[in-house]
């Protein structure tokens, strides 16, 4: 609020932003995000942030999915469809896909597999999300 910013959409906008980072544009996050996340990969800028994002691309780049994640994604997808879609007359897609995505992230990035633990963490994460974008 009260700060200058530019908003770009589409592939050409993304290309412009990422190819001109620290030249014509800098990474900026609202103060609520910076307060909740503290100094981390998401909120760091400059050369340090750029270097850190390069290192993370090994785990999140396109070929990382084939190398590291496809088997787990397939397993979680099959279980999720069986538990939340099959036999249902109606499926509310947004909350169902949100829980699927969270469960997948828990399994891939934290090696959590216990549904009860994932559910408890999801409840806490939803509280956290409510504070991410807030009016100061």
UniProtKB/TrEMBL annotation:
One of its GO terms (molecular function) is heme binding. The keyword Zinc-finger does not apply. The keyword Ribonucleoprotein does not apply. SUPFAM superfamilies: Cytochrome P450. Keywords: Iron, Metal-binding. The lineage of its organism: Eukaryota, Viridiplantae, Streptophyta, Embryophyta, Tracheophyta. InterPro entries: Cyt_P450_sf. It comes from Erythranthe guttata. This is Uncharacterized protein. Gene3D superfamilies: Cytochrome P450 (1.10.630.10).
């Amino acid at each position: 609020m009260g700060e200058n910013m530019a908003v770009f959409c589409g592939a050409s906008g993304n290309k412009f932003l990422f190819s001109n980072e620290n030249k014509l544009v800098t990474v900026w996050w609202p103060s609520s995000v910076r307060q909740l996340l503290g100094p981390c990969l998401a909120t760091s800028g400059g050369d340090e942030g750029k270097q850190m994002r390069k290192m993370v691309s090994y785990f999140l780049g396109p070929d990382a999915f084939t190398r590291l994640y496809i088997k787990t994604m397939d397993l979680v997808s099959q279980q999720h469809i069986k538990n939340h879609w099959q036999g249902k007359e109606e499926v509310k897609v947004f909350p169902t896909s949100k829980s699927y995505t969270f469960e997948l992230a828990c399994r891939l990035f934290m090696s959590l597999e216990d549904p009860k633990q994932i559910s408890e963490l999801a409840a806490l994460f939803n509280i956290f999300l409510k504070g991410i974008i807030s009016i100061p």
